[in-house]
Amino acid sequence: MNVKSPAVFRFVFLVVGFLLSSQSGAEVPDYACGPDYASGSIRNAFGPFDYRSGGPNLRNVESNHMAPDVVNLVRGQTGVWPGGDLSYTLRAFPNHPVALAQMVRLGEKERTPKPAGANYPVECYFKRAMIFAYDDGKVRAIYATYLYKAGRKADALNQLNEAIRLGEDTPNVQYNIGLIYFDLRKYDKALSSAHRAYESGFPLPGLRDKLKKAGKWQEPVVRSDSGGAKAASVED
Prior knowledge:
Shape: elongated
Order of helices and strands: HHHHHHHHHHHHEE
CATH class of the domain at 7-169: Mainly Alpha
Number of helices: 12
Strand order of the largest sheet: 1-2
Largest sheet: 2 strands, antiparallel
Distance between the termini: 40 Å
CATH topology of the domain at 7-169: Serine Threonine Protein Phosphatase 5, Tetratricopeptide repeat
CATH architecture of the domain at 7-169: Alpha Horseshoe
Helix content: 40-55%
């Protein structure tokens, strides 16, 4: 069993996250993330394992804790609350991207920093994932959505730039960086990120529309066959 994000959510989960509003909040203190985290490492009776390695342990956890009802936040698989199964998954595989993303959504759905059944506040799962898999760019990119929705835009931008440094330079990441730069009124940087996202085939027009409305949109410039420069529409 290889758990995937829900069909629509899978492609645009970072973007949708950035377009939703949420309560702003300060960073969760380290002590809230468990005594093992506070000591500088994380431990678990089963694992922790690196999601990127796959294998039978991952299949076992996903089969028993990541059924569609859990992933879609309908109900738990081993208990009443989906948060319990998401939490177990993230204790065994701290950098499980679907479980991380859905834990964020569950916190939004329940309007609480610590969903029912979860062992820790939502942000702690990212802190634990980063101390365990410090080189996983996907964790940073998903964490950025949480930070953005918490009103911590500078922190979100830092995490997205770190995601790029770690190799997660995707159209989603570029689009989301552009949204933050737009909010910060750094329009030149927002435009540059928008060009990168759209040149890579990103489908949503929201960032481009924002830049157009602000009078800051310019078509990207490409080289013609004759060596001259011309504007190129990403929608051509």
